[in-house]
Predict the 3D structure of the following.
Amino acid sequence: MALASPAVKHTKLFEAFLEPRGFNVIWPKRDDLMLRAIRSIKTQGPSDATRNALRTASDELKIAGADLQFVACSEFSIIADSVAADVQVVDTIDLLVTAIVAFSTTPHPE
């Protein structure tokens, strides 16, 4: 359910929040492909190869039953339109931006 850097997987960030709420977290099996795609986007920008890597990982998650998928890497946000068809996608960058705007536009006591 999470399309992110292997580092996010190792921190168990999503598991800590979602599992107590009854969600199972599923990760793509090939950490090396995910990391290679992230590095490629950082150095060369989006490409057919990185889009294919994200789609392959997303398809894998879909087959495993992940109808809800989190794009949880800013590099993957650039190519978030490459995820599997017929899955619900949440881009965590969008969530972060929404929270920042809400915080910034809410009066806070000094």
Remarks:
- Strands lie at 2-3, 68-71, 88-91.
